[in-house]
Amino acid sequence: MAPTAVTPVSPPSPTLDSTSKLTKAGTENTIAKTVSNTAPAVAELDASKCTITPTLNPKRVPAPNSPEVWSQGYTSDHMLTARWTEKSGWESPEIRPYGPLSIMPTASVLHYATECFEGMKAYRGDDGKVRLFRPDRNAKRFLQSATRIALPGFAPEEFLKLLKRFVGFEASKWISEPGHFIYIRPTMIATAPALGVQKPREALLYIMMVMFPALDEPTAVPTSPSSGTQMGQEAKGAKGMRLLASNHDMIRAWPGGFGSAKVGANYGPSLVAQGEARERGYNQILWLFGEECYVTEAGGSNFFVLWINESGKKELVTAPLGDGVILEGVTRASVLDLVRRSRPDVEVVERKFTMEELIKAEKEGRLLEGFGAGTAFFIAPVADIHFRGTDVVFPLGKGGDAEFAMGIKKDLKDVMYGRASHEWGVVVPEEKVY
Questions:
Q1: What is the mean pLDDT of the chain?
Q2: Alpha carbon of 321 to those of 46, 213, 318, 324, 333: distances in Å?
Q3: Residue 51 — φ and ψ, nearest 5°?
Q4: Which helix (H) or strand (E) holds 30?
Q5: In this predicted structure, what is the pLDDT of residue 10?
Q6: Residue 122 phi/psi, 5° resolution?
Q7: CA-CA-CA-CA dihedral for 402, 403, 409, 410, to nearest 10
Q8: Which residues pair with 295 in a beta bridge?
Q9: How far apart are CA 209 and CA 171, in angstroms?
Q10: What is the DSSP letter of 204?
Q11: How far, in Å, CA of 155 to CA of 245, rounded?
């Protein structure tokens, strides 16, 4: 771009739109440099350099739905780590025994929230093979989140190689039975031991695997009251998920912000509202935005509504991408792709919609189904939403069913567990180490 003349007038204050574009441009420019390998000449992330240090103290595998599983803190034997420095780039990755990380109290992540993460699962199929579900999308989003929070970039294909190597190393022991899965949490944190609001100079990428209960199953209830804070859809007797709409003074994300990045700063501030919802008998918060009460997300999940629109057509509607308010969920994208391909009778619409539209649709008998879509809860049908003194009740909450959502859930599970051959189900080679 050619330089422009500087005039002596005061510059205008930056608008939300201009600052949003600046942030987006900076992020896209950094990612482009990473992908095209035009960044400074430092070591790139290289999966071929991965070393393995097996544990000398292997754990036992807990029973499904046990207190250990419901604690959501019981990990597999190993984790994968890779250190990065501004001066040298990426060091050799290592699969090593799971254990504490060593960081200084002045580490950037502890003061400035310079961290991001991903959530995904590995599945043991009915055919005995281990699969990941659309992991390329997680890799791409992980890079976007890291770049948004000023953490180092990496080649997504190298990250995928490391992910597969790690999953293949642990899978034979930790998901040995067909129909089982394990949760995977890739994470990156800034570790430089110095204060100061500045771009991180050191970072650590690590991947761990955690035993998780099947939160999408209606009968998935912890066997002990102290064995977990999250509960299945019927843990309090409700058929389907119950949502409490957020108040006007509580906002999860905003246009031009970082709601589209998977960073911890999106989740910690939401826990007070989430706790209030559970105390009142609801499973999650339905996050609204603006005076118009636009519907955005349900807890940490994307949110969908199936209704008959005012033109008389069956429509699946969800909040749009593009303004940075909602996360570009992998399950969300899969729901949209699947419905567009297989349900010609349903019009798929990504647009802003309000609670008033939901209330009107219920009063006119046009409200059919609602459901959350995400990795943890997967496809979770909604029974009702409480919105400032008004209850919006879906047919499921009145004794009906959620046939549409359950159909989507079955189709996606068939891919995850190898019952249907599909490019979304990526087979992982296993190493027989146990």
A1: 88
A2: 32, 30, 10, 7, 11
A3: -110, 165
A4: helix 16-36
A5: 37
A6: -115, 140
A7: 150
A8: 288
A9: 10
A10: E
A11: 39
Query: Would strands 294-298 and 181-190 be described as parallel, antiparallel, or unpaired?
Result: unpaired
Question: Mind listing the pLDDT tens digit for each residue in 344-386?
Answer: 999 999 999 999 999 999 999 999 999 999 998 899 999 999 9
Compute, in degrees rounded to 10, the torsion defined by CA atoms 342, 347, 352, 357. -120
Q: Which residues contact 366 (CB under 8 A, 6 or more apart)?
A: 307, 308, 309, 310
Contacting residues for 175 by C-beta, under 8 A, at least 6 apart? 122, 123, 124, 130, 181, 182
Helix, strand, or coil (residue 270): helix
Q: In angstroms, what CA-CA distances link 110 with 42, 90, 195, 257, 350?
A: 26, 22, 10, 21, 37
Nearest Cα residue to 310 out of 367, 355, 352, 350: 367
Domains and CATH numbers, the chain: 40-210 (3.30.470.10), 241-416 (3.20.10.10)
Helical axes 135-148 vs 330-342, angle rounded to 10° = 140
Separation of alpha carbons 28 and 147, rounded Å:
8
Lowest mean pLDDT of 24-28, 88-92, 141-145, name the range.
Answer: 24-28
pLDDT-based confidence at 32, cuts 50/70/90? low
Q: What is the pTM of this model?
A: 0.87
Q: Which of 347, 348, 403 is nearest to 379 (CA)?
A: 403
- Alpha-carbon distance of 76 to 177, in angstroms, equals 15
Q: Of 167, 289, 308, 284, nearest to 235 (Cα)? A: 284
Spatial neighbors of 404 by CB under 8 A, at least 6 apart, are 306, 346, 368, 369
